[in-house]
Amino acid sequence: MMRKVLPFALLLTTVTLFGQQKGTEENNEKKQDTEETTDTIRLPEQDFFLLMNSDDVEIANNVPIHQIIKDSVVYALLDDPGAAMIDSLWQKELFQSSLYDGLQDSLVNSEYNEVVFDELPTDTLKMRLEKLNAKTPFNVEYNPILENVIKSYLKRNKKGLERLMSLSDYYFPMFEQKLDKYNIPLEVKYLAIVESALNPRARSRVGATGLWQFMFATGKMHGLDVSSYVDERMDPMMSTEAAAQYLSTLYRVFEDWDLVLASYNSGPGNVSKAIRRSGGSNNYWNLRPYLPRETAGYVPAFLATMYIFEYAEEHGFQPERPATTYFETDTIHTKKLLTFDQISEVTGVEKELLQFLNPSYKLDIIPYIADEDYSLRLPRNRSGFFVNNEEAIYQYAQAKLEEREKPLPQLVDTDSRIRYRVKNGDYLGRIAERYGVGVSQIKRWNNLRSNNLRVGQRLTIYPRKVVASSSSSSSSSSSPKFYTVKKGDSLWSISKKFPGVTVQKIKDLNNMRGSSLKPGMKLKLSEG
Questions:
Q1: 8 A C-beta contact, residue 361 and residue 229
Q2: How far is CA 457 from CA 433, 441, 443, in A?
Q3: How far lies 292's CA from each of 219, 262, 265, 298, 322, in Å?
Q4: Fewer Cβ atoms within 10 A, N terminus or C terminus of the chain?
């Protein structure tokens, strides 16, 4: 507990120096030795959190930090999970990729066999689709394929859909604002569910990333930069703006929203080839046999998702509703380098919640670069708390940075190219993992036709993650940390046992797509 209190003691000292005249400091210190200072607001824990979580932003934002970080209130601030702002649902949903993996598998592997679901008679479905078709520019007319997809979702994935509905309450207001700005049908918001299952850190097997699944080159075209610290494709606001721009461009080309969806998934080139092969048809359902398999399932998945969300009440869905939306958070433009650990310590917002609100920071670090504009997103009534004590927080962060035994990694722009010399024991998978890229990308960059490498061969690589320096023998010889799964373990419980280890990190290090564990399984917890 002392380790948690010490950082706040340092911050308290810094803020006090800001708020008092130098001539009175000695008197105050002597007075504190004998009695309580008279200008300190003593808040019981319950009153403190009522105040901090109050809808009265003026009150919540103007409680000085030196007046609340006192005695037992310190412990309350450290332990507060932010549940008054975003309910416990989010703790379960943070970086869950199982929804994304399942949805992607259904797009690629669905056989569209007949599904029996007596709760939805065909006549009822036809009537509802007709109503939906009348109010949307998408072609939502009934066909057996669409019926089977809808019934399959309702029969096999109701729980997952309820989780997506909960997440949609958080993201959809922001999506709708951006889509309306570009005069795009608001129903396109459902596209993000098909693309990423509303997981901002979703990454496909070919490298498409974020809520809207931008490939590296397409993201660059729309101003989404990637560096060792930041992947702007994972930023919800920036990626949604870029997606709206791209969709607007596609509509100017195809003038049909079904074809826009198909081209968003497979590329305009594949859609134009399908048009030629179909004899010039511009109807998606006529083009469908000539499109890639994933795209053939893409538009039906989108239309099925739209139907289920629009008729959720009729089908008895009862999703938990979050206590806030994207617009009930706020951003602060940061002026110094900050880590999520530091932010969590001084604001009381849990690190996992910071990761959820700020998914574009790959290393849980907000870098500072003079000509770049990075921001921190916080729950609304914590942002004022941060701003009111900004300088003291930066001083605290700088002090913590100077205490680090190991320096933070340098920022590397992914436009940077490196030349890698193949060593004995190297193979493409190991090199790809080291630099955060795909095997297929290394092969494409170097015109390789096979996976064979020879010692001494030079490879061109565009790295997407920081690689630890090998300048010291001690760092290069460090071995990875492993954990043996015990009965009752979950990824969440394991991540809590090791500082700096998150659920997503465990999944990334072990190439896990789902979350299932078996006793005796060995999990890698750190890089070697």
A1: yes
A2: 18, 17, 13
A3: 22, 10, 10, 10, 37
A4: N
- Token reading at 302: 């989108």
C-alpha 438/C-alpha 150 separation (Å) is: 34
Contacts of 298 (CB under 8 A, 6+ apart): 107, 194, 261, 262, 265, 266
Q: Residue 8 belongs to what H/E stretch?
A: helix 2-19
* Concatenated DSSP letters of 284-346: HHHHGGGS-HHHHHHHHHHHHHHHHHHTTTTTT--PPPPS--GGGEEEEE-SS-EEHHHHHHH
Given the structure tokens 């060792």, which residue do they identify? 228
Q: Is the separation of the CB atoms in 210 and 243 below 8 Å?
A: no
- Looking at residue 270, what is its pLDDT? 92
Q: Report which of 444, 527, 482 is spatially closest to residue 217, judged by C-alpha positions.
A: 444
Q: Which residues fall within 8 angstroms of residue 336, CB to CB, at 6 or more apart?
A: 368, 394, 397, 398
Per-residue model confidence (pLDDT) at position 61: 47
Burial 392-408 (b: 16+ CB within 10 A, else e): bbbbbbeebeeeeeeee
Q: Which of 96, 166, 85 is nearest to 349 (CA)?
A: 85
Q: Are strands 418-421 and 522-524 parallel, antiparallel or unpaired?
A: unpaired
Instruction: Give the end-to-end CA distance of the chain in Å, rounded to a whole number.
Output: 31
Long-range CB pairs of 166-170, under 8 A, 24+ apart, other chains included: 166/89, 166/93, 166/319, 166/320, 166/321, 166/322, 167/93, 167/198, 168/193, 168/198, 168/309, 169/319, 169/321, 169/322, 169/325, 170/322, 170/324, 170/325, 170/326
* Rounded to 5°, angle at Cα 262 from 256 and 266: 140
Report percent pLDDT > 70 for the chain. 71
Residues 242 and 158: their CA atoms lie apart, in Å, by: 31
Cα 528 from Cα 479, distance rounded (Å): 4
Asked if residue 305 lies in contact with residue 194, where contact means CB atoms within 8 angstroms, the answer is: yes
The kind and range of the H/E element at 458 are: strand 458-461
d(CA 511, CA 503): 12
State the pLDDT at residue 66.
38
**Tell me, what amino acid is at 116?**
V
Q: Dump pLDDT digits (tens) for 188-226.
A: 999 999 999 999 988 887 788 999 999 888 888 898 988
pLDDT for res 157: 78
pLDDT (mean) for 496-513: 76
Report the alpha-carbon distance of residue 417 to residue 73 in Å, rounded: 50
The C-alpha atoms of residue 158 and residue 116 are separated, in whole angstroms, by 15
Among 185, 389, 216, which Cα is nearest to 303's?
185
Of 85, 98, 197, 80, the C-alpha closest to 491 is 98
Q: What angle do CA 354, 212, 513 make, to 5 degrees?
A: 70
* 133 — pLDDT class (breaks 50, 70, 90): very high
The amino acid that residue 50 corresponds to is L
